[in-house]
Amino acid sequence: MASEKVETVIAGNYLEMEREGNSKSIKGKLSKLFWHGGSAYDAWFSCASNQVAQVLLTLPYSFSQLGMLSGILFQLFYGIMGSWTAYLISVLYVEYRTRKEREKVDFRNHVIQWFEVLDGLLGKHWRNAGLFFNCTFLLFGSVIQLIACASNIYYINDNLDKRTWTYIFGACCATTVFIPSFHNYRIWSFLGLLMTTYTAWYLTIASLIHGQVEGVKHSGPAKMVLYFTGATNILYTFGGHAVTVEIMHAMWKPQKFKLIYLIATLYVLTLTLHQLLLFIGPLATCYLHSNALFAPKDRFQRHCCRPHAYSSGLEHILITYPNYCFITFGFACTPLYFVWEKFIRVHETKSMLKRALTRLPVVIPIWFLAIIFPFFGPINSTVGSLLVSFTVYIIPALAHMITFSSAPARERPPSFLGGWVGHYCINTFVVVWVLVVGFGFGGWASMLNFIRQIDSFGLFTKCYQCPTHKA
């Protein structure tokens, strides 16, 4: 009888929500099609579109810092490592939720988050660490989205400076307060991934068609600081699973998540590896800029990045990419909304209008920081080294080892990984590597680069890296 009872406790019983989505009315069908997304496919769209995000625009710059060979190797290496730690997070989530649902805890009006998983499995000190690193990472992730939006739209219309565009897009992105949870990002996730795929392949095909730009050098960096800055940007690219728990919680059956992130990573690699071809196309000289879509209109610089043969296509990308920034802003900011709702005790209220109004104060500091630090390339590597290192690599690996350290641990790892001994060896390697290379060397290089940007351009820069128009 005991074993039979255990079998009936399955994390994430969404039968009631499924019945809501099965309405036969036209409104119900449309809602199910565009709004209620809890399938494995929805989770895959969310993971894939959220993983690469704005980092796609900084990859050519990162390759110039790393060199072509290191760029390929780091992508493959961190792609595998990121998928591994996402798997660990999924195991810990299911373990936590199963324990709580055995205690008859109801999560129908409550979104489980990473810090709560750590609290339930390991205690308040782990909760505090997870809350600090995760919230800080998501805060600056949201800041980066606003900066990227302003930067990209500026290349379409430079009648307004980047700071003004930041004001405008800050107001636009604030409308994400009306999206209840990741369960309601179905159409946005799909559109986001579609836009990213188009952008990545368009730039690559344009580079192949137009061929080599004269005078471009493909050698790696001459300085260690550039090398590790580029490496931490790749670390960030495949460390976008700070919202993994929220995405899993939005699924009808979160147990199916374990391989989803790996499949999403493999797809993202098809979008990022061929970015190396930007070295040999018309964008080759633009890898000196942190934004691959850098497109000055000045007649002295036009030959660098904006040949007439594909300028219209670039403008098409620049029009659609801010829409994608809006989506990824929502992905980064929604977990912060949840934390704030729980802090002021309105998270479980059914009034979406009340929740939306209480979320607005979260957008204000994000807006302000985007105006202070308008250079998202250096912020990417800094966030990757100081925050992503702990949030999605070190803490999950340590938490998994400690949670399942006892002999009667319920879930046994796959035998082809060497059982628990193999698991511990892999987790130990992840912790040591990321702590030394990602946080140590990467933190040193990223902070040095970040400080140089402040010294060169200053805080509250009105138009960062805007071309100087000459007579």
UniProtKB/TrEMBL annotation:
Top-level taxonomic group: Eukaryota
Pfam families, alphabetized: Aa_trans
Signal peptide: none
Subcellular location: Endomembrane system
Mode of membrane association: Multi-pass membrane protein
Listed transmembrane segments: 72-94, 131-153, 165-183, 190-213, 225-247, 259-280, 321-340, 360-377, 383-404, 416-441
Coiled-coil region list: none
InterPro entries given in the database record: AA_transpt_TM
Domain Amino acid transporter transmembrane span(s) in chain numbering: 36-271, 326-407
One example GO MF annotation: symporter activity
GO biological process, one term: auxin-activated signaling pathway
Any one GO CC term of the record: endomembrane system
Annotated family: Belongs to the amino acid/polyamine transporter 2 family. Amino acid/auxin permease (AAAP) (TC 2.A.18.1) subfamily.
Described purpose of this protein according to its UniProt entry: Carrier protein involved in proton-driven auxin influx. Mediates the formation of auxin gradient from developing leaves (site of auxin biosynthesis) to tips by contributing to the loading of auxin in vascular tissues and facilitating acropetal (base to tip) auxin transport within inner tissues of the root apex, and basipetal (tip to base) auxin transport within outer tissues of the root apex. May be involved in lateral roots and nodules formation.
Name of the protein in question: Amino acid transporter transmembrane domain-containing protein
Native organism: Erythroxylum novogranatense
